[in-house]
C-alpha cells in the first residue's frame, strides 16, 4: 500500500484517541481536532482562531435554509458563535437545538476541512471537527511535533479519499465450519480491511457446487442491538435468521455480515440517534441531526468479498434498492430480488415506515400486514 495510505490508517487511530492530525497540501496546513475526546483546556487554546467544520446535514439541523449551501462540508468560525464552552460546542456539533444565527455564518469548507470530515466518518466519530489553519510560527511548531513523532501529517487528498483506500485490499484471514440452527452446513470466512478497524464475515451456506447459477445472497449490516439482543426497535435480528433459513431452503448460498453498524455510523452514534428518536425524531432526521446522511454504508467490501468467493451472479435477498445498485455498480449481476421481512411491532413501526417513506425501502407488504416471512417462502 502507498505510504499515504498507511498514514491515513494511523491518522484514524490517532483521531479515535483524541489526538490531533495535520492535513497538508501544497499551499496549506490544517490542524484537525476531533470533538470526541476534546478537553476544555484544548478548546480554550483553539477557539480564538479555529473553526467548527460540519456537514451539510448538520447545517440544516442547525436551522439553515434548505438551499443555503450546496457544499457537503461547511466551516463555522468559532469567533462568531458567541460564548462557547465545551458543552455548547457539543450542542453545536450534534445537539438537537437549532441555531439559525450561527448557521448563517457557514462558508464552504476547503479540501483539508472536507478531508477532516471524511476521516471522522471513517473513524466512526461524530462528523464534526475543530480546524485551525497553520501559518508562520504555528506551522513551524506543528512541523516540529510532526518531526518528533507526536503528531501525524497526512495529505489532504488522501484523507478525502479515505473510504477508497481499502478497495481491492481486503484480506482473507481465517475460516471455520460453524453449524447454525437454520443451516447446519455453514462455514464462516473472515475478511479484514487494511486499516484493521473493520472485519467482515462471509457465511457460506451449503456446498458451492450445489448452488444455483445465480447464487442466493444476503448483504446484512451488523446490528448488535437487534442481531444479538433481539431489540424490538428494528427487524434486523429476524431478518438475519430468516435470511440464513431462506438461503438454506434455496439450496445454499452466501450471507455477507458487514461491519456497518447503524447504517454505517457506528454503535456510539447509533445510540445517540436512538436518544434523539426517543425525543420525537424519526431515524432519518436523527442521523441528520448528528451530521450524517440518510445511509452512510458502502458496499465496496461486499464486492471484494464476492470476487474472492468467485461469485458474479446473484439472487439478492433485500428490500433496499441501494444494495442492488451498489452491487451492479461493482460489476455483480443481480438477476432477481427476493423480499426479506421481520415482524412488525409497536416499537419498530415508525422505524420501518421511515425507511419506506424516506429511504425508498420496499416494505409495503410488511407495513400493510400482507407479508409472509419472505418471498422465498411463499
Automatic annotation (TrEMBL):
Gene Ontology cellular component list: cytosol
Active-site residues annotated for this sequence: 295 (proton acceptor), 297 (nucleophile)
Keywords: GTP-binding, Hydrolase, Metal-binding, Nucleotide-binding, Riboflavin biosynthesis, Zinc
Domain GTP cyclohydrolase II: 172-338
Signal peptide: none
GO MF annotation, one: GTP cyclohydrolase II activity
UniProt-listed InterPro entries: GTP_cyclohydro_II, RibA, RibA-like_sf
Record GO biological process: riboflavin biosynthetic process
Chain positions recorded as GTP binding sites: 218-222, 239, 261-263, 283, 318, 323
Cofactor annotation comment: Binds 1 zinc ion per subunit.
EC number: 3.5.4.25
Pathway membership: Cofactor biosynthesis; riboflavin biosynthesis; 5-amino-6-(D-ribitylamino)uracil from GTP: step 1/4
Similarity field: In the N-terminal section; belongs to the DHBP synthase family.
The name this protein goes by in its record: GTP cyclohydrolase-2
Designated gene of the protein: ribA
Amino acid at each position: 500500500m502507498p505510504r499515504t495510505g498507511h498514514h491515513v490508517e494511523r491518522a484514524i487511530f490517532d483521531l479515535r484517541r483524541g489526538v490531533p492530525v495535520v492535513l497538508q497540501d501544497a499551499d496549506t496546513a490544517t490542524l484537525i481536532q476531533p470533538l470526541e475526546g476534546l478537553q476544555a483546556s484544548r478548546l480554550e487554546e483553539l477557539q480564538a482562531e479555529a473553526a467548527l467544520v460540519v456537514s451539510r446535514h448538520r447545517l440544516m439541523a442547525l436551522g439553515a435554509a434548505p438551499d443555503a449551501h450546496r457544499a457537503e462540508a461547511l466551516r463555522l468560525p468559532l469567533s462568531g458563535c458567541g460564548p462557547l464552552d465545551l458543552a455548547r460546542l457539543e450542542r453545536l456539533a450534534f445537539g438537537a437545538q437549532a441555531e439559525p444565527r450561527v448557521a448563517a455564518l457557514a462558508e464552504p469548507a476547503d479540501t483539508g476541512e472536507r478531508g477532516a470530515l471524511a476521516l471522522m466518518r471513517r473513524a466512526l466519530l461524530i462528523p464534526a471537527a475543530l480546524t485551525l489553519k497553520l501559518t508562520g510560527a504555528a506551522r513551524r511548531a506543528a512541523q516540529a511535533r510532526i518531526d518528533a513523532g507526536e503528531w501525524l501529517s497526512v495529505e489532504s487528498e488522501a484523507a478525502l479519499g479515505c473510504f477508497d483506500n481499502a478497495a481491492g485490499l481486503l484480506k482473507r484471514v481465517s475460516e471455520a465450519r460453524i453449524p447454525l440452527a437454520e443451516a447446519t452446513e455453514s462455514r464462516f470466512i473472515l475478511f479484514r480491511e487494511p486499516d484493521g478497524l473493520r472485519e467482515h464475515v462471509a457465511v457460506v451456506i451449503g456446498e458451492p457446487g450445489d448452488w444455483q447459477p445465480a447464487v442466493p445472497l444476503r448483504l446484512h449490516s451488523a446490528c448488535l442491538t437487534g442481531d444479538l439482543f433481539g431489540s424490538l426497535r428494528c427487524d434486523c435480528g429476524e431478518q438475519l435468521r430468516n435470511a440464513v433459513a431462506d438461503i438454506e431452503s434455496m439450496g445454499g448460498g452466501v450471507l455477507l455480515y458487514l461491519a456497518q453498524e447503524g447504517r454505517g455510523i457506528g454503535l456510539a452514534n447509533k445510540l445517540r440517534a436512538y436518544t434523539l428518536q426517543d425525543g420525537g425524531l424519526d431515524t432519518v432526521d436523527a442521523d441528520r441531526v448528528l451530521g450524517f446522511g440518510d445511509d452512510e454504508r458502502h458496499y465496496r467490501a461486499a464486492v471484494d468479498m464476492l470476487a474472492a468467493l468467485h461469485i458474479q451472479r446473484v439472487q439478492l435477498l433485500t428490500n433496499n434498492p441501494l444494495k442492488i445498485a451498489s452491487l451492479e455498480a461493482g460489476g455483480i449481476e443481480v438477476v432477481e430480488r427476493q423480499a426479506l421481512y421481520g415482524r412488525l411491532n409497536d416499537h419498530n413501526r415508525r422505524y420501518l415506515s421511515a425507511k419506506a417513506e424516506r429511504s425508498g425501502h420496499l416494505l409495503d407488504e410488511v407495513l400493510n400486514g400482507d407479508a409472509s416471512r419472505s418471498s422465498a417462502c411463499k
